Amino acid sequence: MPELPEVETIKRTLSPLLKGRLIKEIKVGLGKLLLPGEKEFIARVAGRRFLDLKRKGKYLICLLSGGTAVIVHFRLTGQLIYVNGQKPLPPHTHLRFFLDRGELLYVDLRQFGRLEALAAKDLKDHPQLKELGPEPFALNERDFYGLLQKSSRPLKALLLDQKVISGLGNIYVDESLFRAGLHPKRPGKELSLPEASRLLAVIKEILAEAISDGGSSVRNYVDGQGQRGRFQEKHRVYGRRGKPCPRCGQTLAYTKIAQRGTHFCPACQK
Ligand SMILES: [Zn+2]
């Protein structure tokens, strides 16, 4: 599932290609992907221009002319790819936005993603967007420490909770806890201020590195031009269950916390 660095990369790669483009026609292969429904979506979106692209947590938000917005929920396997010229369509292409230059495709193997059209003025009241906690980059160490202090839940569950902090998913939580040397089961409120500061610094560092590497392509993630990311090559624990810890050599462990597979080093993470 695209997390903050992947959605940020999609936004950065698509922005220069889409800004100012007119949506001439929408060809719908799978209407269930469109909210509030296929007819309403087309009525709101066709004939508009892309003005700007924003990201909030793991959501991409397209601001269109006429006071319209589209929220893209990528979920597990959603992809938004700009193409220009004759190329075979990728498998699982379900939506085609024909533009005045090129074409924007929505591709989704598992079909859990959604594109939601609404009035831009309603974005601030959108139930899912409204609930999102602050982004890591917007937090200082005191705020972050305060968030952790409020909860006895394990760090892994806390950091995955989009209402507490937005943008992190399984990959970047596991990688951050490893780099910070913190056990994923540690209760949030047990962290000292220096530990919380170190964790926040590491989260920001890893997200920044992942963005500059174009995200992590662990399943099928690609950017807005269909290119794979490179940060997966730098993962130190995520997806490396049973392999030696890159720091101490002990076998990396795997467990479930908050129903999510969790990779960690039992020796390095206290
Ligand atoms: Zn280790």
From TrEMBL:
<keyword id="KW-0326">Glycosidase</keyword>
<dbReference type="GO" id="GO:0034039">
    <property type="term" value="F:8-oxo-7,8-dihydroguanine DNA N-glycosylase activity"/>
</dbReference>
<feature type="binding site">
    <location>
        <position position="110"/>
    </location>
    <ligand>
        <name>DNA</name>
    </ligand>
</feature>
<dbReference type="InterPro" id="IPR000214">
    <property type="entry name" value="Znf_DNA_glyclase/AP_lyase"/>
</dbReference>
<dbReference type="InterPro" id="IPR010663">
    <property type="entry name" value="Znf_FPG/IleRS"/>
</dbReference>
<dbReference type="InterPro" id="IPR015886">
    <property type="entry name" value="H2TH_FPG"/>
</dbReference>
<dbReference type="Pfam" id="PF06831">
    <property type="entry name" value="H2TH"/>
</dbReference>
<keyword id="KW-0456">Lyase</keyword>
<feature type="binding site">
    <location>
        <position position="92"/>
    </location>
    <ligand>
        <name>DNA</name>
    </ligand>
</feature>
<keyword id="KW-0378">Hydrolase</keyword>
<keyword id="KW-0862">Zinc</keyword>
<dbReference type="InterPro" id="IPR012319">
    <property type="entry name" value="FPG_cat"/>
</dbReference>
<dbReference type="InterPro" id="IPR035937">
    <property type="entry name" value="FPG_N"/>
</dbReference>
<keyword id="KW-0863">Zinc-finger</keyword>
<feature type="active site" description="Proton donor">
    <location>
        <position position="3"/>
    </location>
</feature>
<protein>
    <recommendedName>
        <fullName>Formamidopyrimidine-DNA glycosylase</fullName>
        <ecNumber>3.2.2.23</ecNumber>
        <ecNumber>4.2.99.18</ecNumber>
    </recommendedName>
</protein>
<feature type="domain" description="Formamidopyrimidine-DNA glycosylase catalytic">
    <location>
        <begin position="2"/>
        <end position="113"/>
    </location>
</feature>
<dbReference type="GO" id="GO:0140078">
    <property type="term" value="F:class I DNA-(apurinic or apyrimidinic site) endonuclease activity"/>
</dbReference>
<dbReference type="GO" id="GO:0008270">
    <property type="term" value="F:zinc ion binding"/>
</dbReference>
<feature type="active site" description="Proton donor; for beta-elimination activity">
    <location>
        <position position="58"/>
    </location>
</feature>
<comment type="similarity">
    <text>Belongs to the FPG family.</text>
</comment>
<keyword id="KW-0234">DNA repair</keyword>
<keyword id="KW-0227">DNA damage</keyword>
<dbReference type="Pfam" id="PF06827">
    <property type="entry name" value="zf-FPG_IleRS"/>
</dbReference>
<feature type="domain" description="FPG-type">
    <location>
        <begin position="236"/>
        <end position="270"/>
    </location>
</feature>
<dbReference type="Pfam" id="PF01149">
    <property type="entry name" value="Fapy_DNA_glyco"/>
</dbReference>
<keyword id="KW-0238">DNA-binding</keyword>
<comment type="function">
    <text>Involved in base excision repair of DNA damaged by oxidation or by mutagenic agents. Acts as DNA glycosylase that recognizes and removes damaged bases. Has a preference for oxidized purines, such as 7,8-dihydro-8-oxoguanine (8-oxoG). Has AP (apurinic/apyrimidinic) lyase activity and introduces nicks in the DNA strand. Cleaves the DNA backbone by beta-delta elimination to generate a single-strand break at the site of the removed base with both 3'- and 5'-phosphates.</text>
</comment>
<dbReference type="InterPro" id="IPR020629">
    <property type="entry name" value="FPG_Glyclase"/>
</dbReference>
<comment type="subunit">
    <text>Monomer.</text>
</comment>
<feature type="active site" description="Proton donor; for delta-elimination activity">
    <location>
        <position position="260"/>
    </location>
</feature>
<dbReference type="InterPro" id="IPR015887">
    <property type="entry name" value="DNA_glyclase_Znf_dom_DNA_BS"/>
</dbReference>
<dbReference type="GO" id="GO:0003684">
    <property type="term" value="F:damaged DNA binding"/>
</dbReference>
<dbReference type="InterPro" id="IPR010979">
    <property type="entry name" value="Ribosomal_uS13-like_H2TH"/>
</dbReference>
<feature type="active site" description="Schiff-base intermediate with DNA">
    <location>
        <position position="2"/>
    </location>
</feature>
<keyword id="KW-0511">Multifunctional enzyme</keyword>
<keyword id="KW-0479">Metal-binding</keyword>
<dbReference type="GO" id="GO:0006284">
    <property type="term" value="P:base-excision repair"/>
</dbReference>
